[in-house]
Design brief:
By secondary structure, the protein is of the alpha/beta class. 45% of the residues lie in helices and 16% in strands. The protein is globular.
Length: 302
């Protein structure tokens, strides 16, 4: 069985991406896993700190327990997403103990998000996380650049963000960051945006984002490591598919499947109906958006 590090490198070389499905509600794990297996794809189940604080995933241990029930490491691995040094509310987070907990729980990879720090501080914090992960034999993802969040009220309108490149990952900073931290994968800002998390805005359709593919290619060449696209839901389809040819080897998906779950419940359905909505949406994304049906044979077979 290939390591996750090897699988990600295979994806990068093949010009395909590993979808990583965020879990804000624990009952979503089973239908996502079933969809990935039914389409013989390869994907990650992941959970971010914000999803146990502001939604109902409860925590890394609970998501791990649901993941273990799937008993399918041929198609799936488990990733700890977005553990920030400074969180979405501007509060400091003691991140390393959370990473240690995930490692002890058997997570296959972890992410430290130091993107709200200055470059020097981000390098220092990320290097610590990388050393921790590598000592356990697993890869560590990091982030550089300011990925806007839908409805945060803190950033420029989207068109202004894209026109000015506000918050986009600087190429030379990324070159230095990758070399000095030793991170395995790098989440970059090239026009992608995170979905809203506030209760009032969760149902709102995301802004249709596009990507600066020229900058993305420059980042690929500068870093030499697999790149990650956060905020993958809502990015224009042609941009998503082109991004896989320019270094994006992992794409995070949260809003699309979360909305399917919440809308099914809101329409009077029970949890089983909401799970079926997640299954259907995951299958559609794997087939039509990410071209990931059958990807396991291409990237994950030893």
């Amino acid at each position: 069985m290939l390591s996750l590090s090897a699988i990600m490198k295979n994806a990068c070389r093949a010009g395909v991406a590993v979808p990583a499905f965020n879990i804000p509600y624990l009952p979503m794990v089973a239908p996502v896993g079933r969809a990935v297996a039914d389409l013989d794809a390869f994907a990650l189940i992941e959970v971010a700190r914000i999803e146990w604080l502001k939604f109902e995933s409860r925590g890394p241990a609970e998501v791990r327990d649901e993941f273990v029930k799937l008993n399918d490491r041929d198609h799936l691995r488990l990733h700890l997403d977005h553990i920030p040094v400074i969180d979405e509310d501007g509060q400091p987070v003691d991140a390393l103990p959370i990473l240690r907990q995930a490692i002890d729980l058997g997570y296959d990879s972890v992410m430290l998000d130091g993107s709200l720090l200055d470059l020097e501080e981000n390098i220092h914090a990320t290097r610590q996380a990388v050393e921790l992960a590598h000592a356990a034999g697993i890869p560590c993802e990091a982030e550089l650049g300011a990925i806007a969040r839908e409805g945060s009220g803190k950033d420029l309108p989207y068109e202004e963000i894209f026109r000015t490149g506000y918050g986009f990952t600087p190429v030379e900073d990324a070159r230095r960051f990758a070399a000095e931290t030793g991170c395995d994968w790098l989440s970059v800002a090239v026009g992608n945006i995170h979905g809203a998390v506030s209760q009032a805005l969760r149902d709102r359709q995301k802004t249709e984002a596009r990507l600066d593919l020229e900058r993305l290619e420059a980042l690929r060449q500068a870093t030499g490591i697999p790149l990650v696209l956060h905020g993958g839901s809502g990015v224009r389809l042609d941009c998503v598919q082109a991004a896989f040819k320019h270094g994006i080897a992992k794409i995070n998906v949260g809003f699309e499947i979360r909305r399917a779950y919440e809308q099914a419940l809101g329409a009077g359905g029970d949890v089983a109906a909401a799970q079926e909505a997640v299954y259907a949406r995951t299958c559609a994304l794997l087939r039509e958006t990410y071209g990931a049906a059958g990807s396991r044979r291409l990237i994950a077979e030893g």
